[in-house]
C-alpha cells in the first residue's frame, strides 16, 4: 500500500508506470448467497489501456523480470484504495499480496493505515489476500506480519485454495478468516463429481476452522446452485460481474433470481466409478483371516505344531522376507501326516516338501470385479487350499473360497445401494438422500415412479442378457428427458426407476419418455414376435397367456413447495409414488398424476389398511 521511492533506473518500464501513476483499478463483486447482496469487491490492477502491459499477467511478468513485483503490488493496492474511496461503495475491499509484500506492509503499518485514513477506507473493511504468485519459503516469517495487520482490524484471506502454493498446511498454520476456492474446482462442478467431492472436503474443514468460503469462477447458474446448496457462503465470478472500473452496487436481477431459485441442485454423483470398479479394500477386509506365517526354513514339525496350536487355521503361508512363496493346506498336510512313519520320516524335512509353491495370491488393492473374475476362472485351487492376501506384495493374511464368495457378494450388494451396476444410475441411498434434501428445503417437485409392463415374460423368453439391454434402453430414454441440473434419476432395482423432477414441464417430459420407450422397445423382439404384437408365455399362476410388448408406466406424485400437507419422509414419497405407478399400469396412456391432497388420502388409506390387517 505505501509507496516508497523505487530505486530503479529510468529504463524500468514498471517503475515508470508506478512513478507516472499509470496503473488503474478495476473491481469484481463478491456476493453473499444468503441475502443475495454484494458484500465486497476484489481490487485488481490494470496497466495502460491498449498497451502490451494492460493485462495483469503481462504486467506482473514484466515486474518479475525487473525484480519489481513487491513495489508493483504496493502500487496496485494504493491505486485500488484510492479508486474504491472515490466510488464510495459499501462493503469490504479485497487486496492481493504475496508473502513478501505482506511482511513489508506490516513493517510500514503506520504509513499504510495513514493512507487508509486519508482515503476514508477503514482498516476493518480491508481483507488481505495471500496470493499464489510464489511459494512461501518460511510461513513463520509471515505469521507475525498477519498478526500485526489483524490488530488494526484487517482480515486475512487465503486465495486460490487448491493450487500448489495454497495448501492445507497454510490453512492450518495461518488460520485465515476467508478462504477463496480456486476457480478450477468451481468451473463445471455441477457435472464433475470429483470436483464436487474435493469442494465438499474443503467445506468440511471450513466448518471446523470457522473460515468463510468464497467460490471463485462462478460462470453459470448450474454451478451457482450447486455451491449454494452445498452451504458455501459466498461467490465470485463472471455470472455476477466482470472486473470493471465502476462495478455494480447490486446483484443483477438474473443472478439474484438464480440465488433465490426454489429448486435445489442435483449433486453430481460418482456412480459410474463406484459401480464399475468399487475398491476391493472392503472385500479384502471382510474375508481376511489374520494368521501367522512360517519362514521358508521351517520344518514340517513346525507346521504340525502350528496346526495343533491353532485348530481353526485352514492353512499356513510360507514367507521369505515377508513375501509369500508357498501355501500349506491343513487337510492335505494332516492327511499325509496320518500315514504310517510320515512324521518320523519327514518331520525334520523342510516344510516346502508338502507345500503348494504357486498359491493363489490376492492383493488387497484388487478390485471387486477382478475378484469376481477369479471366481469365474478355471483355476479353482482357492476353493480347497484357500489363498494368500498381500499388501503391496507383502504377506498380510489368508482367505478361503467361501469367504471370497461372501465378501464379493456383500460388497456388490452394498455398492448397488449407492449405484446400480447395470445402468450406473444412483441407487436407493442416494435416492433417499435427494428426497430428504427436497423435503427439508421445501422445494416443489414431482416424484415419478417408473415400471415396465410385461418385462418379466420378456426376460423369461429372451434371457437376462436381452432383458438387461431393455433396462439400459429404459435408463437412456429417461435420462434423455431429464434436465441433469434439476431432475434426479435413480434406479431402484430391476425394472423400477424413480425420477424426482423439478422441471416445470415434467408431464410433457414423462409423456415423451413413454412414447420413446414404447416405440423403441419393439426392436428388441424377433421379427415374428413383432408381427404378432407380443409373445406367448405363462402368467404367475402358470396359465398360458399372450403378453403384449414391453411398455412403460409412470405414476407421478406432485409435492407442492412448502406444503404442510406434503409427505414428510422419503419412505412416504416412495410408497405413494409406487401406488400411483400401480394405477398407471392399468391406464392406456401409461401415466397417472396424483396431487398433494390425493397423496394424503392415499397415505391415510394405506395406514387404515395396515391397522385393519393388524386387527
From TrEMBL:
This is EAL domain-containing protein. It comes from the Bacteria. PANTHER family: CYCLIC DI-GMP PHOSPHODIESTERASE PDEF, SIGNALING PROTEIN. Residues 7-257 form the EAL domain. The lineage of its organism: Bacteria, Pseudomonadati, Pseudomonadota, Betaproteobacteria, Burkholderiales. InterPro entries: CBS_dom_sf (IPR046342), Cyclic-di-GMP_PDE-like (IPR050706), EAL_dom (IPR001633), EAL_sf (IPR035919), GGDEF_dom (IPR000160), Nucleotide_cyclase (IPR029787), Rev_trsase/Diguanyl_cyclase (IPR043128). GO terms for molecular function: cyclic-guanylate-specific phosphodiesterase activity. It comes from Paraburkholderia humisilvae. Residues 443-597 form the GGDEF domain. Pfam families: EAL, GGDEF. SUPFAM superfamilies: CBS-domain pair, EAL domain-like, Nucleotide cyclase.
